Amino acid sequence: MHRTLSKKLKSLVVLGLAGTALSGCATMPGSSVPAGSPITQAEAQQGAQYHPQFVSEFGGKVEGPQATYVESVGQKIAVQSGLANSSSAFEVTLLNSSVNNAFAVPGGYVYVTRQLVGLMNNEAELAGVLGHEVGHVAARHSARRQQAAQQNQLLGVLGQVLSSVVLGDSALGRLGQEISSTVPQLATLKYSRGQELQADELGVEYLASAGYDPHAMATVLESLAAQNALDASLKGQESTMPEWASTHPDPASRVSTALQLAGNMTGATNRNQFLNHIDGLMYGDDPKQGVIEGRTFIHPVLRFEFTAPQGFYMVNGTTAVSISGDSGQGQLSTAQFNGNLETYIRNVFSAIGGDQTQLAPQTLQRTTVNGLPAAYGMARANSGQQNVDVTVFAYDFGNGKAFHFATITPAGRSSVFQSMFQSMHRIGAQEAGSVTPRRIDVFTAQRGDTVQTISSRMAFDNAREQRFRVLNGLSANDQLMPGQQYKLVVRQN
């Protein structure tokens, strides 16, 4: 979560992207030019216009040798599309985001998060992911629309995202649909199953023409499937589609189709070259954006900490922190603050309601939480099938800064978040300085090394072996091979 945060509902959409790479891949509205045609001037201008906003929304751009390497691989695969004759026509950006995502926009702009790169195990997989995204652009999967029609469609999609991903498929989600009208147009569109399969096909084609092993498309899909299943397990959820993300259309057929497309073709994977380049890459949350440790969120830059209720899990986005559980959902973010908490809270309620729903706190009370001046308000609304309680709990951090929780629960159950509201507190310089990032450490397996002994060094408090296996694309029965390189996640010294 950055020092300067965008509007709450905009951040909900961003948070909803977590775990949707290669399924809910993002794109800006494209043009109606024929598929396979070169980049047009209008597309180039459009991509350039939105590029800074995408970079900002996804945590900023990673700089340095790792980013340069990702850019070179991306340009090599993108030029296979025929969208341009020169690889320099494509701008490939490694994003400082801890969610697994990749996307491309018309105009030659291609993006991948460092978290997704860290999940990969060879250069061919990186090329396959980026080739898939470029394939969406080359196939012109998003057609040019009139601005008004485009906005209406985007808002409809955003309502679905809020409902199914952030707020849950419930009455709470339907309230999310009502408030989605306040979300800007910078959003992601899900592709149809046919479009995803076509992008996979193009990605495999690009891999082969660039000299890579086309089977990498299938192996990276499998790694993403395993990561999604592990994430669901760690959150106490069941994964009904263990072979791929539950949000993805027909996952099994996509993996098998990718294998069929690759057939007997062979090519380079450049495993060691890839691993050597990503050695030291940050993994998980960037302390500059705050970190999640179990149920506790710590922001060493903004100097605060809070703990989610038992049974809830958090997702740290670049603009807000989401808190989700069976009995409610919420997020922590910020807004413009003039020094008056009551006015601040009323403005947050107004933003939640948007133009269509007049939402205002029915109660407003001041309090103090761990020395912080605070205030809270609650409103009861009807989602169509049941009453829900919307609570905004805000804190004055001084110097013109305020942060607030906004939560939605079934009516009468808002107290589930009370412990979280009361846990917010400042942290000192020593505690802030103790927060260090996790990084990928590439090592060479020696004789006698086992998955069990090596995975014990993973910088996590739980599921170390499962995390290690997913990170390295190992099945439940795979063992380490002496002389081969693998990845660990360690704390930076």
UniProtKB/TrEMBL annotation:
Query: Per the record, GO CC terms?
Result: membrane
Matching InterPro entries: LysM, Mito/Outer_Membr_Metalloprot, Peptidase_M48
Q: Give a yes or no for keyword Transmembrane helix in this entry.
A: no
Q: Which CDD domains match?
A: LysM (cd00118), M48C_Oma1-like (cd07324)
Q: Name one GO molecular function term.
A: metal ion binding
Origin superkingdom: Bacteria
**Listed GO biological process terms:** proteolysis involved in protein catabolic process
Q: Which UniProt keywords apply?
A: Hydrolase, Metal-binding, Metalloprotease, Protease, Signal, Zinc
The LysM domain covers: 441-488
Q: Which Gene3D superfamilies match?
A: Metalloproteases ('zincins'), catalytic domain (3.30.2010.10)
Cofactor(s) in the UniProt record: Zn(2+)
- Give yes or no: UniProt keyword Zinc: yes
The protein's name in its UniProt record: LysM peptidoglycan-binding domain-containing protein
For this protein's source organism, the top of the classification is: Bacteria, Pseudomonadati, Pseudomonadota, Alphaproteobacteria, Sphingomonadales
